[in-house]
Amino acid sequence: MKLHLSGHDGLNVFSGYGEGYVAINQVRYERNLIVLPDHIIENWQVESVAQLKAAHFDCLLSFQPEIVLLGTGATLRFPDLQLMKAMVASGIGLEVMDTHATCRTYNILSAEGRRVAAALII
Question: What is the mean pLDDT of residues 9-25?
Answer without folding.
Answer: 95
